[in-house]
UniProtKB/TrEMBL annotation:
Residues of the full protein shown: 1 to 240 of 305
GO molecular function, one term: ATP binding
Keywords tagged on the record: ATP-binding, Nucleotide-binding, Transport
This protein's record includes keyword Ion transport: no
Official protein name in the record: ABC transporter
Chain ranges of the ABC transporter domain: 5-236
The species this protein was found in: Ketobacter alkanivorans
Length: 240
């Protein structure tokens, strides 16, 4: 089996001295759809930030399809698409340009970039917004734009940080079916969430993070069976 993502003994202490990750390790098989489930403050975004090279780690290693994110940064970044938790667009850039600019970061030629922008904006239902500035979009549209932007270089691994938080139920369902389709077509997906229901609906495997530690990693099936037997106490806070 090919390993899409390998995280090994990852530690992060923020500058104020807070230890957000206390040495986490987990692996994701190629083709998997994995949930990283945990309550607010558990360390999900810190983990995703490090995987996407936006946050510096204190120690540990991350490799994406066998490429170490420090040693083989250029190769590793080609294989991963990131949907951050917070919107981080240039407010004044037009929707179509955001995708073309992103494609440029990956060395994609202009003609292909234009084709990819059209393909992914259409897939995410944003083609008619292509000439609007991103600040004009609704929250749900911005969320979809982040997904389109993450896919423009057609990565093998897509990582989404709480993509459905604050999203209405209709959009949540359409995003779920979009992600399921994408996974069926071969994209490995990792999604962070604090909704067990979402993880259960979408994912084949699960890692649970709390207080900067992975407390469980297994198949969704095994996890749910254990929950049924009530031998596993899950305390993920009241949000769930
Ligand atoms: P989650 O995404 O699971 O809600 P985060 O990774 O965002 O959790 O945060 C994990 C912990 O690290 C939290 O206690 C949070 O307050 C802390 N933290 C996050 N970012 C910073 C930062 N830039 N500086 C200091 N502490 C931070
Ligand atoms: Mg977070």
């Amino acid at each position: 089996m090919t390993i899409a993502l390998a995280v090994s003994d990852l530690k992060k202490t923020y500058s104020g001295g807070f230890e957000a990750l206390k040495g986490i390790s987990f692996q994701v098989q190629s083709g998997d759809f994995m949930a990283l489930l945990g309550p607010n403050g558990a360390g999900k975004s810190t983990t995703i930030g490090i995987i996407s090279s936006l946050v510096n780690k204190s120690s540990g290693t991350v490799s994406i399809y066998g490429q170490d994110i420090d040693r083989d940064f250029a190769a590793a970044k080609m294989n991963i698409g990131i949907v951050p938790q917070e919107f981080n667009f240039n407010q004044f850039e037009k929707v179509g340009d955001i995708l073309r600019t992103q494609a440029g970061y990956f060395g994609i030629d202009q003609k292909t970039a234009a084709e990819r922008a059209e393909k992914y904006l259409k897939l995410l239902g944003l083609w008619d917004k292509r000439d609007d500035r991103s600040r004009m979009l609704s929250g749900g549209m911005k969320r979809r734009l982040m997904i389109a932007r993450a896919l423009v270089h057609e990565p093998k691994l897509l990582v989404l940080d709480e993509p459905t938080a604050g999203v209405d139920i209709e959009l949540r369902r359409s995003m779920w079916s979009f992600l399921q389709q994408l996974n069926k077509q071969g994209t490995t997906i990792i999604l962070t969430t604090h909704y067990l229901e979402e993880a259960e609906h979408l994912c084949r495997s699960i890692a649970i993070i709390d207080h900067g530690q992975i407390i469980e990693q297994c198949s969704m099936k095994a996890f749910l069976a254990r929950l049924d037997k009530e031998t596993f106490v899950l305390d993920l806070g009241q949000d769930i």
